[in-house]
TrEMBL record:
Its EC number is 3.6.5.-. GO terms for molecular function: GTP binding; GTPase activity. It comes from Dimargaris cristalligena. This is GPN-loop GTPase. It is an enzyme of class 3 (hydrolase). Belongs to the GPN-loop GTPase family. Its main location: cytoplasm. Small GTPase required for proper nuclear import of RNA polymerase II (RNAPII). May act at an RNAP assembly step prior to nuclear import. It is found in: Cytoplasm; Nucleus. It comes from the Eukaryota. The lineage of its organism: Eukaryota, Fungi, Fungi incertae sedis, Zoopagomycota, Kickxellomycotina. Pfam families: ATP_bind_1. Binds to RNA polymerase II. GO terms for cellular component: cytoplasm; nucleus.
Amino acid sequence: MSAPETASASAAQTTDPKKMPTVILCIGMAGSGKTTFMQRMNAHLRAQKQAPYVLNLDPAVSKLPYGTNIDIRDTIDYKQVMKEYKLGPNGAILTALNLFTTKFDQVLEFVDKRSEALDYVIVDTPGQIEIFTWSASGSIITDSLAATYPTVLAYIIDTPRTTSPATFMSNMLYACSILYKTKLPFILVFNKTDVQSHQFAVEWMSDFEAYQRALKDDTTYMSSLMNSMSLVLDEFYANLRFAGVSAVTGSGFDEFFDRVKEARDEYYAEYKPELERIIRERQKLQESEKKDQLDRLLKDMAISEGKEVDLDVDADADEQ
C-alpha cells in the first residue's frame, strides 16, 4: 500500500463511520447497461434527496446521460493520447487511466471536502472491464477509495444475454475473480429485468440440479467443464448478494440499495479491520527495517573509527 493510501486509511480511522459516504464502484462489460444504470442510480438518489458525488473514469465515452462532479475527460483527451503515443483504443484508455491515477490524491481531496454532506459517491468505470479490474491504475484507484471510505463493488450483468448456461458461467467466473482480487463487499446486479427476469439465474445459483438440467442438451466438453465449475462456485453463490434491476424503468433499485447497506456493514465488520491489520504490520516492518539500517550504520561507524597510533614507536622503527 502506498503512502497516500496509508494516510487515507489513517484519516478513515479517525472519522465517524456514520458520516462517511458509501462509494459504489460500478463495473460491467460493454453492453451490460452500466452507463444507463449509473444514470438511473443518480436519478433515484436525487429523488430521495441524497444527491451523490459522481465520478466518471471512462475516458472513451462520447456522451454521458448524467452530470458529473469529476470527469476524467476534463483532464485527459483520449483521442490526443492515441495520437501522441500511437496507441490503439484499449492502450489509450489504459494510458489515460494511468495518467489520471497520478493525480488521484487530488480527487480524494475534492471528495473529502464534501464527504460530511454526502451519503453516496458513485463511480463509473471503463466498459473494457479488464482495463480497470486488472491494471495497476485500477487497483490503485480501488484501494485508495476503499482505504478512505466504505466501498462496494457493483458488478452489472446483461440479464437477457446470460440465459445461456455457458454465458452465465462466464459471468460468474469473472465476478468471482474480481471479488477475490479486491476482497471488497460485492453485489451482483442483474440489469435489464424489464426484458428478461433474473429468476432463472437465482434458481441456478441456489439449485445445482436446476443448472444441470439446463445443461442436459449440451453434449460438448463444455458441458462437463461447466458442471464442474458450478460445484466449485457453490461457496461463492452461498455468500453472494444480488439484486435484479431495470435501469430503464427504475424497478428493483430499492432492493439494490438494501444490498448496498448490507455491504457497507460488511465493510466495517470485515474489510476495515483487515486493512488496519495490514497497515499495522507494514508499519512494524518499516520500523524494523529502519532499526536494522541504523544498527548497521552504527556498526560501520565503529569499524571505521580505527585505532590510535603511537608516533614514538613509529619514529624508533624508522631510525632502525
